[in-house]
Amino acid sequence: MGDPVPVGECVARVTPAPVRDPGTGFDLVVRSRRAVLPGGERPAAVGVRDGVIAAVLPYDAPATALAEVDLGGVLLLPGLVDTHVHVNEPGRTAWEGFATATRAAAAGGVTTIVDMPLNSLPPTVDVESLAVKRAAATGKCAVDVGFWGGAVPGNAGGLRALREAGVFGFKCFLSPSGVPEFPHLDDAGLRAALREAAAFDGLVLVHAEDPALLSEPAGPSYPEFLASRPGAAERRAVERVIAAARQTGARAHILHVSAAACLEPLEAARRDGVRITAETCPHYLTLTAAQVRGPEFKCCPPIRDDGNRDELWQGLAAGVLDCVVSDHSPATPDLKVPDFAAAWGGISSLQLGLPAVWTEARERGYRPDRVVDWMSARPAALAGLVAKGAIAAGRDADLVAFDAGAEFTVDAARLRHRNPVTPYHGRTLAGTVVATWLRGRAVTDDDPPFGELLCPT
C-alpha cells in the first residue's frame, strides 16, 4: 500500500473487498462517540486492515490493533468525495497542480477528487491527452484522484475509447468555456455526445448556461456582471439538457446549479423518469450577491441573492439537488483584476468546502449525517466510486476526524492550494479537520504522497 501508480496505469477500487475474521486483529482502530455511518450517527470503533474497513464495532468493543486512536466526542466521517475539481496541470500549473490541490483536499477532509478535463493543456478530450494528464499526476497526489474526459465538437466518436482508457464520464459546455481549446456544444453536438454515451451507459456532465441569454456586462461592477448571466440562462439550458436526455435515454448531470429557477424543471424531469442529476456548490449555499466584495467572488454561473440561496437549500434537502462539490477553479492573482467583466471566473474552496457548508447547515438545523450524504455518499455514487463514500465494512478506510464545534477565521495565505485567493478570506467558519486517513494511513506533510490514480470499475 502507498506506492505511486506507474505512469499510464490506474486502480479500480471495488467493494465489498474481502474481509477476514474481524477477531484476528487490525492495522488501525479509530473510535468515536460520534461516528457518521450509513444508518446515522452513533458511537463506533472502525477496524482497518490492508487499507479497507474490516469491521464497524461498538465504540467500547475490545480489539487488537497495531495502532489505535480514540477521538472521544470528535466526529468521525467518511472521507469526502469532490467530483468537481480543476487541477489545471499540466499546462496551467501556475494556477494549481496535483501536489498543491491534493494537499488542500486532504486538509479539508476530502480523500478523493475527480479532475475536470479543463483548464489543463492539453484538455482531456482523447486517449492521448488522458495519458499526458496521468503522467503529470503520477507520484504527486496526496489523495486518490480520478479523471473526467471532455465532450467537445467532433469527438463524440472517441468517447467510448476514452471511457475504456479510464475516465469516469464526460464534461461539456453549452456556452463558451472561457478557454479556446475547449469549445462548447450546440444542440446537435449535445445530442451526439449523449447518444454515444448512452450506448455504453456513460455519464455526461453539463455546464448549463444558454449563450443566447448571456450578454457582455454593461460595466465593471458585480451587479452588472450578475445581470449579464441571469438565472433564466441556466433554466433554459437545463431544459435543453432534459429534452436531449429524454430523447436519447442517456444519463446527464447538471453541474454547479446556482439558479433556483432550475429546480422546478429538474424535479419534473425526474418524476418523468429522465435520467438526470444535479449538483450545487458551497459558494452558492453560503455566499450571497450582497456579500460580494471583489473578483475573488466571481464565478460562472454567478453567486445570486439571499432568497435564491434559501431555495437552493430547500432543493438540496428535498433531493432535487443531489450533491455538493467545490468546483475548485483557481487562477493566479493577476487574473483576478478589479473588474468583474474582465476578471477570471472561478472560486478556490477545495480546503474549505466542509466547514463552509457545515457552518451554514448547522444554522439551518441540519445534522452532520446530511452533510456527509451530500458531500461524500452522493458524489461517490455519481461517479460510480463504489469503494468510497461511507464508513462500512469492505469500503476503503478513508476517514476524517472533524471537530464540528471548533471555529476558525480563514487566512488565505495559510491555505494549501497554490494561490492565496479565496472569497472566504477573513470569514469565521465552524468545524476543523483534525486528521485525515486515506485507506487507513494518516495523510501528513511529513510523508510522501501515496494517493492512487483511479479508474472506473
List keywords for this structure.
457 residues; alpha/beta; Urease, subunit C, domain 1; TIM Barrel; 2 domains; eight-stranded mixed beta sheet; six-stranded parallel beta sheet; 11 helices; 26% helix
Task: Describe the protein in words.
Helix 4 packs across helix 6 and helix 6 (231-248) packs parallel to helix 7. The two termini are 19 Å apart. The strands form three sheets. Strands 1, 2, 3, 4, 5, 15, 16 and 17 form an eight-stranded mixed β-sheet that branches. Strands 9-10-11-12-13-14 form a six-stranded parallel β-sheet. A three-stranded parallel β-sheet has the order 6-7-8. It has two domains: 22-77 and 396-442, Roll (Urease, subunit C, domain 1); 83-383, TIM Barrel (Alpha-Beta Barrel), CATH 3.20.20.140. The protein is built from eleven helices and 17 strands. Residues 1-7 have low confidence and may be disordered. The longest helix has 18 residues, at 231-248. Helix 2 (127-137) links the parallel strand 7 and strand 8 (144-147). The chain is 26% helix and 22% strand. It is α/β, with parallel strands linked by helices and 457 residues long. It has helices spanning 98-107, 127-137, 159-165, 187-198, 222-228, 231-248, 263-271, 282-286, 306-317, 353-363, 368-383; strands spanning 26-37, 40-49, 52-57, 65-70, 75-78, 80-85, 110-115, 144-147, 149-150, 170-173, 203-207, 251-254, 276-280, 323-324, 399-409, 428-438, 441-442. Belongs to the metallo-dependent hydrolases superfamily. Allantoinase family.
